[in-house]
Amino acid sequence: MSGFKRDWNGNAKKRDGPRPPPKQAVRNAYTPMFENLRNELDEHYDRRERIVKASRDITALSKKIIFSLQRVRKIENQLPANIQAEVDARLAEIAKLLAALAPEVQGINRYRYARSLLCLEELVEALTFAHYLRTQTLVSLAELSPVIEDLSRKGAAPEDEVMADAGVDTAGNAEKPAETPTVSLTQDDYLYGVFDLTGEMMRFATTSTALTGTMASSGAGGQAGGGGAAAADDDDDEQPRTIVQDMHELGTLFEMLPVAAGNRFAWGKKLEVARQSVQKVERLGYDRIIRGSERPKGWVPDLSAADQGPGDELE
Amino acid sequence: MAPPMIDPALFGELKSKIEEDISVRKELDQILDDLEQHVSFTQGLLSRIHSTPRSKYATLLSEVEGGIKKEIETTGRLSTFASQYPYYKYNHKWTRTVQDAISTVILCAWLGGMSPASKPGEVGRLLTLEDVGEAFGVPVNLKDRDAFHITIEEYLLGLIAVIDELSRLAINSVTLGDNAMAVQISGFIKDLHAGFQVLNLKNDILRKRVDSIKYAVKKVEDVVYDLSLRNLIPQESQ
């Protein structure tokens, strides 16, 4: 605070009275307006921050689900118990996060924060992959939306109980779920999630083929799982559908869909990656036919460092 | 038998949704083409203020008001159409144009256009977000329902464009001999600059644009400095 200011005549300006601390914003006619706007903007920024945080956690959990699922070796009705347990535990965590997220992304805010909600793509990827491993089919958007809504409701359930306890009426539980806000799925979340699914299927096809010596298909799963009659029928008239055909179908789906106008760049990139995945699985199928015919039935590569894969098949 | 990998109905559903999205975008593009035309016409008219003495503002501004009227009409069309769809799904398509339209309205009003009958031609009136919404006949800062509106960010970005334009006007008004105008602009911009300091900004486009205000402030301060150095500041208007 040394020195002093001069006015344009060169006379030292006198400070009238002690000045308020320097950073105390000068108030003028517009200050109240800006203070209002600040409060509104802060609300938006804070909400976005919370969404981004939850989204990051959901993404991480979804990726862990996918890693667990990649330890599955064949397509069958039931995931192996240990893997199912891992998946369920992660899903329970995701449900809690979704429940916390749900009120923030209602109505107009759903698309406002769409870019901060990329976790939903990852979650779609995990859920569609799990569904594929169980049924060898692609779950549709209409089937998947209620699943995610259910998840957000489940995550909210404990809170509801607390709320109900606080209120007079404990029997109100039955009505509560109807009002619970849920996270809705957009078509883009779904499509981009399914794009990523092709990558996971490619990885699954590669490992399962390498470790079991057969192309993954529900027919193969049926033989091991005990659907004996059905499997025998399949052998007679046609080979069971394998993952190669499934990849082709998925690839065709995306090739035939019109390019989503929202983000042509991302679409193009995803499509390119999907094409590569399809071709990698094609190559696998080819190798199985050419070299597979030379290897004795039941032969699997000797992967002493590998996991349980060989043991199951050799008996 | 085992179900097919992909339910045949699924492709149709996905395809029709994407096609609907594409046609919405086409329709929006058409409306936005119109809006852009009206906005750039109005902006062009407004750029004449740099060579128009204050005494002739009234004539110029009535022309500008004509352009603004068309902006408002087209914005109404946009509002009706866009309100059928999630607002933020398509907001990025029009937000720039709407910002420009807002800035023409704010600037016109500041120069004394669109003024209430009680104070015709008064220079220095700042339209608030609510005033702008009223001028366009659309809601502002909607939170409780999903429809077309003007956002806070759009208003603030439009306002920053006005600040830039006024900093240019400060120079040209001095050229035209209207020193009082430069002084008034200086006060206005400084007040707004202080106002923007109140906001807690995040690292986004708004923050970037707000950071640019200081250059406008400096530009206008330099003009006022030149005037005061030569004792050219009109005393009575202070």
Automatic annotation (TrEMBL), chain A:
<protein>
    <recommendedName>
        <fullName>Translin-associated protein X</fullName>
    </recommendedName>
</protein>
<feature type="compositionally biased region" description="Gly residues">
    <location>
        <begin position="219"/>
        <end position="229"/>
    </location>
</feature>
<feature type="region of interest" description="Disordered">
    <location>
        <begin position="217"/>
        <end position="238"/>
    </location>
</feature>
<feature type="region of interest" description="Disordered">
    <location>
        <begin position="1"/>
        <end position="25"/>
    </location>
</feature>
<dbReference type="InterPro" id="IPR036081">
    <property type="entry name" value="Translin_sf"/>
</dbReference>
<dbReference type="InterPro" id="IPR016069">
    <property type="entry name" value="Translin_C"/>
</dbReference>
<feature type="region of interest" description="Disordered">
    <location>
        <begin position="294"/>
        <end position="315"/>
    </location>
</feature>
<feature type="compositionally biased region" description="Basic and acidic residues">
    <location>
        <begin position="1"/>
        <end position="18"/>
    </location>
</feature>
<dbReference type="Pfam" id="PF01997">
    <property type="entry name" value="Translin"/>
</dbReference>
<dbReference type="InterPro" id="IPR002848">
    <property type="entry name" value="Translin_fam"/>
</dbReference>
<dbReference type="GO" id="GO:0043565">
    <property type="term" value="F:sequence-specific DNA binding"/>
</dbReference>
<dbReference type="InterPro" id="IPR016068">
    <property type="entry name" value="Translin_N"/>
</dbReference>
<keyword id="KW-0963">Cytoplasm</keyword>
<comment type="similarity">
    <text>Belongs to the translin family.</text>
</comment>
<dbReference type="GO" id="GO:0005634">
    <property type="term" value="C:nucleus"/>
</dbReference>
<dbReference type="GO" id="GO:0005737">
    <property type="term" value="C:cytoplasm"/>
</dbReference>
<keyword id="KW-0539">Nucleus</keyword>
UniProtKB/TrEMBL annotation, chain B:
<dbReference type="InterPro" id="IPR036081">
    <property type="entry name" value="Translin_sf"/>
</dbReference>
<dbReference type="InterPro" id="IPR033956">
    <property type="entry name" value="Translin"/>
</dbReference>
<dbReference type="GO" id="GO:0003723">
    <property type="term" value="F:RNA binding"/>
</dbReference>
<keyword id="KW-0963">Cytoplasm</keyword>
<keyword id="KW-0539">Nucleus</keyword>
<dbReference type="InterPro" id="IPR016069">
    <property type="entry name" value="Translin_C"/>
</dbReference>
<protein>
    <recommendedName>
        <fullName>Translin</fullName>
    </recommendedName>
</protein>
<dbReference type="GO" id="GO:0043565">
    <property type="term" value="F:sequence-specific DNA binding"/>
</dbReference>
<comment type="similarity">
    <text>Belongs to the translin family.</text>
</comment>
<dbReference type="InterPro" id="IPR016068">
    <property type="entry name" value="Translin_N"/>
</dbReference>
<dbReference type="GO" id="GO:0003697">
    <property type="term" value="F:single-stranded DNA binding"/>
</dbReference>
<keyword id="KW-0694">RNA-binding</keyword>
<dbReference type="GO" id="GO:0005634">
    <property type="term" value="C:nucleus"/>
</dbReference>
<dbReference type="Pfam" id="PF01997">
    <property type="entry name" value="Translin"/>
</dbReference>
<dbReference type="GO" id="GO:0016070">
    <property type="term" value="P:RNA metabolic process"/>
</dbReference>
<dbReference type="InterPro" id="IPR002848">
    <property type="entry name" value="Translin_fam"/>
</dbReference>
<keyword id="KW-0238">DNA-binding</keyword>
<dbReference type="GO" id="GO:0005737">
    <property type="term" value="C:cytoplasm"/>
</dbReference>
